[in-house]
Every structure is written in structure tokens, then in C-alpha cells.
UniProtKB/TrEMBL annotation:
Belongs to the glycosyl hydrolase 67 family. It holds the Pfam family Glyco_hydro_67C. CDD domains: CBM6-CBM35-CBM36_like. Keywords: Carbohydrate metabolism, Glycosidase, Hydrolase, Polysaccharide degradation, Secreted, Signal, Xylan degradation. GO terms for molecular function: alpha-glucuronidase activity. It is an enzyme of class 3 (hydrolase). It catalyses: an alpha-D-glucuronoside + H2O = D-glucuronate + an alcohol. The lineage of its organism: Eukaryota, Fungi, Dikarya, Ascomycota, Pezizomycotina. InterPro entries: A-glucoronidase_C_sf, GH, Glyco_hydro_67_aGlcAse, Glyco_hydro_67_aGlcAse_N, Glyco_hydro_67_C, Glyco_hydro_67_cat, Hex-like_dom2. This is Alpha-glucuronidase. The keyword Signal applies. The active site is at residues 297, 376, 404. GO terms for biological process: xylan catabolic process.
Length: 835
């Protein structure tokens, strides 16, 4: 009896350990398994070579059907076609079973899927396509989509890659989920277990290439030992139809090859690249190609020798061409020393300026990889104007799954709606329909190549990205790279079913949270097209708008006492609006036709400028920051309502992040609002900004062993001031008398730095309310800070605490290392109040 109960519980998936490692490929049993029409009795996979994706498809079908429907099927490479799942390439199928006219329209990587009673046909145009079809079938049955019928699915574009910014030492630039799965201590890793698992995940969303090292590339990847290692990685990915690619350092012939030049027009340099390329291809015959970042942010490139970007790209193109490889050449080329005092200087102009005159000069196997917006993965940007400027050059769009500027996986931000807006944006090239998605597919300008690349930066963390909910972004990336016409909400709901099962409330809640998450994040970070107002000089994480201006990086807001925004008009500004085709240029040139959400991207206006909503710019800032932060609070309640409907492990881990996000959203809100109130001297009509009646400032308490500390940037602390212990060895105490009674949530804002784990205890008249440690650096994975600032500022809340007038509030902070138990304020919040 006990066993039956155990099985029942395990089988409905409530108590199984869920650590996120299986992501959307959990193959959890479905409740309505019995309503599947008669199940095939075996699997025929028309290739028995172990490295074949068709073989993989057979194994995956066996594993999936066992998990989802509870039936063990045999796999064979030959057999009859009745009562069988047959998976293979069109050619292999036709050889054995004769013609299949229904599959005539298959394109490269495409698949045909036919489900009829107990007969399932999964036919790929190539081996990879057959594997995609198998995953599609499994995804459907895992979601109880048991409908019969047949369909063909072809990709939107041939290139569907990820980029991983992994360094040779195993660290990952803008990675938030632990160290690299590919590289370690200067070499390609020996242990390919996680690489295989990652390839499996990516194949299931139809990704066909992975660039395994950072675009800021290190030439030591080209050593013999590492080339052998790359071979191992490629061998691990090949059964999943995924091709390996690498990023190159332009100066390799010089830095690594011992030549005295890396001039792309020097024959010796060309010979060196041809030689090393041949060597790599002899170990990885199906290598996808190269990714190159040149002349950007200090990287070497062809401009060093007065050669054009096309000269540089074509040098690599010629080396890989005999092997069928391609070169992804990044358009992210800009000068990071432009002059702030020059009103018409503009980093957003850089890509079009640098590629000016080069359209058509690139070899056919070069693809220019263009970030979705003209600056750098901001919370809102218009599409890059380069998409409409290159007509005779293949292009791909570059997206980020890793949330570099968008909360670093510590804030829930479902990105598919952001991507969707870019995909569907009609650039009206030559006054004809020219959606961005039709341009990067190659369709609009009739280019043979095209597609997408997303920076993912998975790490060794079990959850892949450091956060369970962030995995919806990876899933959506693959699905939308294959078919950008899909609605983000539909993609999300498939992901929810596969990741969390069928509970209606779970579905509705995660859908609602995710769909609100990007607008909420935009609201409390940077709205009206001003960019994510994060610290661009440090970690790209917490708030610091002042860091955007007065430097050569060009992520400017041009905020002063009276006005804000970049004047990108042709008539009086940087001329960036004029880089778009005429219809779009006119829209952005005119303040009346520019949408509110891009107003400050294109125009420099007074804070009192009215929006289409009727509000002024500054009041919109205040309101949006309050509303966005309030939305982040509501996520906690929403998530909490799912307790018991989701396995405890993932429930707790996600709850932890939502609580953290809610606290950090308030840090964002108060920082940004205080910054602009201070700068503009215009008060908030609703009198919220700067008024915090529930707060007790730590600096106003009686301090023993603590001292006041002015915080920089100032708005990172309430009242611009925090307290820190006077030494790093002895505990400090802050006390004050409480003059009110009731039940309150007590929120404590403090700073959690890397470089120490301070301990805190909060008590009321010696009754301990709570203890905690400053150890978020072990739990969150975002880029750490060693300062009291907008990155380290955080909040912990103790719920429903009884307070008596006359109580003595006391916080004892035990410093550790450089973390001097820093404390900002303590809020006593009546029920329903958040401040
Ligand atoms: C079987 O798979 C191998 C490895 O992918 C491939 O080389 C071979 O052509 C395939 N055979 C058939 C008949 O498709
Ligand atoms: C390149 O990698 C080597 C080997 O890990 C390392 O010693 C060197 O510091 C790296 N160079 C850069 C610029 O990171
Ligand atoms: C390889 O990595 C996997 C996954 O991280 C781990 O479980 C396994 O123990 C590692 N194998 C070795 C030999 O280190
Ligand atoms: C090509 O590389 C090999 C070593 O892999 C080296 O022996 C040979 O000299 C190189 N040739 C050229 C032209 O650089
Ligand atoms: C590149 O051109 C500039 C100006 O035309 C010249 O001053 C410089 O010496 C050239 N550099 C090289 C490496 O040829
Ligand atoms: C200002 O920047 C523009 C655009 O880059 C440039 O053409 C112009 O020469 C610059 N003006 C000065 C004074 O440097
Ligand atoms: C995964 O990352 C989270 C957050 O950084 C951390 O709490 C957890 O310990 C990590 N787990 C592993 C296995 O790395
Ligand atoms: C035009 O540009 C100047 C800077 O050259 C700037 O000070 C002024 O505010 C701009 N005028 C308008 C109407 O935007
Ligand atoms: C964002 O702010 C706008 C303007 O204040 C508001 O209308 C909207 O509801 C907010 N959305 C979210 C999700 O916070
Ligand atoms: C508390 O601190 C704030 C800012 O640090 C200060 O402006 C205010 O006057 C203080 N209030 C009291 C009651 O001491
Ligand atoms: C305390 O600070 C001193 C001086 O800055 C430093 O040398 C010492 O290592 C610190 N102690 C700890 C425990 O970090
Ligand atoms: C018809 C046939 O060949 N069936 C074999 C398929 O493979 C299983 C093992 O997976 C064998 O047991 C069957 O005999």
C-alpha cells in the first residue's frame, strides 16, 4: 500500500526532486496518458550510427515516451512502418518504404510529422531535421496535445546559434550561473557531460550552432591541445545536430603565431589563418565557422592597418570557405572615446557609419551579426538602422538571453515580447514592407544566409542560467528563431506546461507574472526610451544614471537641471533618425509622431514636456517607477499563492528570487526618482518621492560601534546615508525607541557586498525578530559589488511582527572582511503598505 501511494505521488510529479537540470525536457508523466490514441509499439530510427542525430532521435523518443506515457518501446534501425514511430531522413525513408510526396516541401533542417493512430512518421529533410521532429512529437505528447494529423515545419532562417562568452580561465563575461561548462584553467574542459546535456536542450529548440568562447577572444584557444579539446566538444554536440564554432582574436597571427603583423592584406597573415583553419577542420570537419569582434572596445581589427572591415571579414571567409564554414562578423564596432561635449556625436550612429560603403563588399559566406538595437541590449531600443542599410550583405540579429542589463537573472524579465517588437518592426525600406524578421531571414533582400544568435552564457549551475524562470527566455529564443511569427504568450505557455505541468493556477500565475515582467522592469529601471539606467561603468546591474553621461562610452541621457534625452534628430541633433528609411526617419524626427516609449531616445526635452498620456515626462518617471516596483511586489504574492502546486525545491528557489526582486525594485524606484527629483527640483505631484513616513533611518538611531557613512552614489541610500561598523573586528549596535504599537512587516534595507559575510540580528526589547547574513553573493549570481551602492543595496522583510510602544528596536551587526554590516533603514509597514 505504501508503495502504491509513493508511486502515485511520484507519478503525478509532486514530490520528485526538481533541480531544474532537465529544464523543459523533464518528460514528466501526463495525467491523461490513457487518452492517447493507440500507442505505437516500437520505434524505428533509420540510422544506427551513434553520432547520427537520427540515432539520437530514436533514443530520445524511447526515453520520452517512457517518461511521459509510461511505456517502454524498443528501438530498431529497421522494421515495418505499421504501429511504429518511424524517424529518419526523407532519403532514408524513401529507400526503405518508398515515396513520400507529402514531404516534398521540406527545406534544410525542416521536418514532416504525421500522427495517425498508432503510426507516427517523423521525417527530416536532413538528420538534424529528423531529431527536431522527434522533439516536436515529444513536446506535443508531454503537453497532452494528442491530435492526429500531419504537418511540415521549416525554419525561418538557416542560422540559429547561441554565443557563449566563456573565457579560457572558465569565467564567463556577463554570465550569472557559475563557471563555464566548456573551458577551465586555460583549456577546453575534459568533462563533456554538461556539454552533451546542453546540446540536447538546444537541439530540442532547434538551435544548430554554438560559439563556445567569448567574443573578446583569447588566441590560446588555437593551441594544439585546445584544438584537440574543441574536437571533443564537437564530438559531444554532433549527435544533436549542433555544430561548434569559435570566436577569434584578430591579432592571433601576431600574438599567438609569432608573425610581426596581423594585417589582413598581408599574404603571410592569410597563409597563417588558412593553415590554422585547416588544422581545426581536420579535427572538426563540420565546424560551423568563426565569430569575430574587431575594432570594438579595444579589440584589434583591420582598422589597425587602415584596412576595411570587409577586408578583415573576408580574410576569415576565405580560410573557412573550402570547408563550407561561415564567418559571423559583429556589427558592434564603435569608438568608446567619443566627446560628450559634442552635441552631434552619437554611438548609435556607429554601426551604419562604420559599414558605410561596405555593403556588397563582403564575401558570400560572411554574415554581419547586428545587435537588435543601435546601442547595447537596453530595456528598450528601436531596431538598429543597419538592418535597412545592408542590402547586398547577409545579416543576423544578435539577442541576449543572459540578462546583462536586464536584471542578471535576479529579476524576472520575460524577454520574448521585447524580441517580438523588434522582429515585427517594419523598417519600410524603399517604402515597402520590410519587417526586421524578413530582413534577417534573408527574404527581404534575397540573401542566401541569415538568422539569429543569442548570447546565452549558461554555466555549471544546475539550473543552467541561475534561475528557473529565466529558462523561459532560452526556450523562447530557440522557438522564435525557428518561427518568429509565434506569439510570446503562446511560447511561454508551452514552456510552463513542459516545466511545471498542467495546473491551471500555475499556468495563469506564471503567465501573468511573465507577461508583466518586461513592462514592470522597464517602468522601474528606465522608461520613455532613456535606456536601462544602470551603472554602465561597473556591473551593469543596479541603478546609477549619472554613470551614463560625461564619458566617452556614448550611452548618454544628456540629463541636466532642465531637460533630458538624446537629440537624435537630423534638424538639430545627431542625425541618427536620418539613418532609417525615409518613412521611419520622418516618424522619429518629429516629436509628435515618436511613440512615448522612444521619446527620450530620439529627443531632448524639458522635464515638463507633456506626453501623449497628458502627463509630464518627470511625473511619468515618478509614476512608472512606483507602478513598476508595485508590480514587482505583486509577483511575490502571486508566487506565494502557488505553494503546494509546485515541487518544494523549485518553489522555494523561485520564491527567494521574487522576494529579492521585490526589494531591489524598491531600491531602483527610490534611486531613480530621488536622482531626478534632486536634479530637476520638480516635486512628485503625488508627494511620494522623498517622503517615507514608515522609515527609521539607521543614521538616526543611537550608535555604538557603528558610524554614519555617506553613500556614493548618494541616492543608493535613503537619506543618502548609511551606517557601517567602526572596525571590521567588532560588532556595532544601533538602537532606538519605538513609539507606536501594532502589527507590522519590518523591512530592513542593508548592503550586501562581496568580500565578507556580515551577520545581523534584529530585536525588539531583546525579543529576537530575525537574524540573517550578508551572503547574497553565494545565492544570487549577479555581478557583485564591493561598495555600498545600487548593486549591493537590498532588503529583508520580517512579516507580521507585534510591536509595543516603548519597545527598544536594536540591530546588532557583526562585520566580516570588507563588509562592515552596513545598514540603511528599517521600515515598519502597516498591513498592505509597501515602502
Ligand atoms: C547515418 O548517420 C551518419 C552519421 O550522421 C551519416 O554519416 C550517414 O550518412 C547516415 N546514413 C544514412 C543512410 O542516412
Ligand atoms: C589568455 O589565456 C591564457 C591562458 O589561459 C592566459 O594566460 C592569458 O592571460 C589570457 N589572456 C587574456 C588577455 O586574457
Ligand atoms: C563530469 O560532470 C558531471 C556533471 O557536472 C559530474 O556529475 C561528473 O561527476 C563529472 N565527472 C568527472 C569525472 O569529474
Ligand atoms: C602550418 O602549420 C604547421 C603546424 O601545424 C607548420 O608546421 C607549418 O609550417 C605551417 N605552415 C605555414 C605556411 O604557416
Ligand atoms: C593609417 O592612415 C593614417 C592616415 O591616413 C596614417 O596616419 C597612418 O600612419 C596609417 N596607419 C598605418 C598603420 O598604415
Ligand atoms: C562632433 O561629432 C560629429 C559626429 O561624429 C563630427 O562629425 C564632428 O566633427 C564633431 N565635432 C567636433 C567639433 O569634434
Ligand atoms: C546555482 O546558483 C544558485 C544561485 O547562484 C546557488 O544558490 C546554487 O547554490 C547554485 N547551485 C549549483 C549547483 O551551482
Ligand atoms: C538644439 O541643439 C542645441 C545644441 O546644439 C541644444 O542646446 C538645443 O536645446 C537644441 N534645440 C532644441 C529645440 O532641441
Ligand atoms: C508601467 O507604468 C505605466 C505608466 O505609469 C502603467 O500604466 C503600467 O500599468 C505599468 N505597468 C507595469 C507592468 O508595471
Ligand atoms: C534622520 O535622518 C535624515 C537623513 O539622514 C535627516 O534628514 C533627518 O533630519 C533625521 N531625522 C531625525 C528625526 O533625526
Ligand atoms: C580588517 O581590516 C584590516 C584593515 O583594512 C585588514 O587588514 C584586515 O584583513 C581586515 N580583517 C578582516 C577579518 O577582514
Ligand atoms: C523486430 C525487431 O528487430 N525487434 C527488436 C528491436 O530491438 C529490441 C531491443 O531494443 C529487440 O528486443 C527486438 O527483438
Amino acid at each position: 500500500m505504501l508503495n502504491v501511494w509513493l508511486c502515485l505521488l511520484v507519478c503525478i510529479g509532486i514530490v520528485t526532486a526538481e533541480d531544474g537540470s532537465q529544464a523543459w525536457l523533464r518528460y514528466a508523466p501526463v495525467p491523461q496518458a490513457s487518452s492517447y490514441q493507440s500507442l505505437p509499439s516500437s520505434i524505428v530510427a533509420l540510422n544506427s550510427t551513434r553520432s547520427s542525430p537520427v540515432y539520437t532521435a530514436g533514443q530520445e523518443l524511447q526515453r520520452g515516451v517512457k517518461g511521459i506515457l509510461g511505456k517502454q518501446l524498443s528501438v530498431n534501425s529497421t522494421g515495418k512502418s505499421e504501429s511504429t514511430i518511424v524517424v529518419g531522413t526523407l532519403n532514408a525513408y524513401q529507400e526503405v518504404f518508398g515515396n513520400l510526396d507529402d514531404a516534398d516541401d521540406l527545406e534544410e533542417d525542416g521536418f514532416y510529422l504525421s500522427i495517425e493512430d498508432s503510426k507516427v512518421l517523423i521525417i527530416g529533410q536532413n538528420e538534424r531535421g529528423a531529431l527536431y521532429g522527434a522533439f516536436e512529437y515529444l513536446s506535443r505528447i508531454a503537453q497532452e496535445m494528442f491530435e492526429t494529423g500531419s504537418s511540415i515545419s521549416n525554419p525561418h532562417a538557416p542560422i540559429r546559434w547561441t554565443n557563449e562568452w566563456d573565457n579560457m580561465d572558465g569565467s564567463i563575461e556577463r554570465g550569472f550561473a557559475g563557471p563555464s561548462i566548456f573551458l577551465k584553467n586555460g583549456y577546453v574542459t575534459d568533462n563533456i557531460t554538461r556539454v552533451t546535456e546542453y546540446a540536447r536542450l538546444l537541439a530540442s529548440i532547434r538551435i544548430n550552432g554554438i560559439i563556445v568562447n567569448n567574443v573578446n577572444a583569447n588566441a590560446t584557444l588555437l593551441s594544439s591541445r585546445n584544438i584537440e579539446g574543441l574536437g571533443r566538444l564537437a564530438d559531444a554536440m554532433r549527435p544533436y545536430g549542433i555544430q561548434l564554432g569559435i570566436s577569434l582574436n584578430f591579432a592571433s597571427p601576431h600574438d599567438f603565431g609569432g608573425l610581426d603583423t596581423f594585417d589582413p592584406l598581408d599574404p603571410e597573415v592569410d597563409a597563417w589563418w588558412a593553415n590554422i583553419t585547416n588544422k581545426i577542420y581536420s579535427r572538426v570537419p563540420d565546424m560551423a565557422g568563426y565569430l569575430v569582434k574587431a575594432n570594438s572596445e579595444g579589440q584589434p581589427g583591420p582598422l589597425t592597418y587602415n584596412r576595411t572591415l570587409a577586408d578583415g571579414a573576408n580574410m576569415f571567409a576565405k580560410a573557412v570557405e573550402p570547408h563550407g564554414g561561415i564567418v559571423m562578423f559583429r556589427a558592434f564596432v564603435y569608438d568608446n572615446h567619443i566627446s560628450y561635449s559634442n552635441w552631434t556625436a552619437d554611438r548609435a550612429n556607429a554601426a551604419v557609419d562604420f559599414f558605410n560603403g561596405l555593403d556588397g563588399k563582403f564575401d558570400e559566406n560572411v554574415v554581419v551579426q547586428i545587435k537588435y538595437g543601435p546601442i547595447d541590449f537596453q530595456v528598450r531600443e528601436p531596431p538598429s538602422p543597419l538592418f535597412s542599410a545592408l542590402r547586398n550583405t547577409s545579416v543576423a540579429i544578435e539577442l541576449q538571453v543572459t540578462q546583462e542589463y536586464l536584471g542578471q537573472q535576479c529579476h524576472l524579465v520575460y524577454l520574448a515580447p521585447l524580441w517580438k517588437e523588434i522582429f515585427e518592426f517594419d523598417l519600410r525600406a524603399d517604402s515597402r514592407p520590410s519587417k526586421v524578421k524578413e530582413i534577417f531571414s534573408g527574404e527581404r533582400f534575397r540573401r542566401p544566409l541569415g538568422g539569429s544568435a543569442a548570447v546565452v552564457n549558461v554555466g555549471t549551475n544546475t539550473t543552467w542560467l541561475g534561475s528557473h524562470l529565466a529558462m523561459s527566455n532560452l526556450y523562447a529564443y530557440g522557438i522564435m528563431a525557428w518561427d518568429p511569427s509565434i506569439e510570446p504568450e503562446a511560447v511561454l505557455q508551452n514552456w510552463i506546461r513542459l516545466t511545471f505541468g498542467f495546473d491551471r493556477q500555475v499556468m495563469d500565475t506564471i503567465t501573468d507574472m511573465s507577461m508583466k515582467s518586461w513592462p514592470a522592469y522597464e517602468n522601474y529601471t528606465g522608461n520613455l526610451g532613456i535606456q536601462t539606467l544602470t551603472d554602465i561603468l561597473y556591473t551593469h546591474y543596479g541603478p546609477n544614471p549619472a554613470s551614463q553621461d560625461n564619458n566617452g562610452w556614448g550611452q548618454w541621457t544628456r540629463a541636466d537641471q532642465f531637460s533630458i534625452g538624446m537629440d537624435r534628430t537630423v534638424k538639430n541633433g545627431t542625425g541618427n533618425a536620418g539613418q532609417y528609411p525615409p518613412e521611419i526617419a520622418r516618424t522619429f524626427e518629429n516629436i509628435d509622431t515618436t511613440p512615448d516609449n522612444l521619446l527620450l531616445w530620439f529627443h531632448h526635452v524639458p522635464y515638463t514636456q507633456p506626453l501623449k498620456s497628458g502627463k509630464t515626462v518627470i511625473q511619468h518617471f515618478y509614476d512608472a517607477h512606483y507602478e513598476g516596483a508595485a508590480t514587482a511586489q505583486s509577483f511575490v504574492k502571486q508566487w506565494d499563492s502557488l505553494e503546494g502546486q509546485i515541487d518544494a525545491e523549485r518553489f522555494k528557489e523561485i520564491q527567494f528570487r521574487q522576494v529579492y526582486q521585490a526589494g531591489h525594485a524598491l531600491v531602483w524606484r527610490d534611486f531613480i526618482n530621488e536622482f531626478y527629483r534632486n536634479l530637476s527640483s520638480i516635486p512628485d505631484e503625488a508627494k511620494r518621492v522623498g517622503h517615507h513616513p514608515y522609515r527609521i533611518e539607521a543614521e538616526n538611531m543611537t550608535l555604538i560601534g557603528y558610524r554614519r557613512q555617506a553613500v556614493t552614489p548618494a541616492p543608493a541610500a535613503s537619506g543618502y546615508t548609511a551606517i557601517v561598523t567602526t572596525s571590521n573586528g567588532t560588532a556595532g549596535t544601533a538602537t532606538t525607541n519605538i513609539s507606536f504599537s501594532g502589527t507590522f512587516d519590518i523591512a530592513v534595507n542593508y548592503f550586501d557586498l562581496i568580500g565578507g559575510k556580515a551577520k545581523y540580528e534584529l530585536s525588539l526589547s531583546n525579543r529576537t525578530v530575525g537574524t540573517w547574513a550578508g551572503d547574497l553573493e553565494d545565492k544570487l549570481g549577479h555581478a557583485p559589488s564591493t561598495f555600498l551602492d545600487g548593486h549591493s543595496a537590498t532588503r529583508i522583510t520580517f512579516k507580521s511582527v507585534q510591536v509595543q510602544a516603548g519597545d527598544i528596536l536594536k540591530v546588532v551587526g557583526q562585520p566580516d572582511g570588507i563588509e562592515l554590516a552596513p545598514l540603511d533603514y528599517i521600515s515598519f509597514l502597516p498591513p498592505g503598505v509597501v515602502d
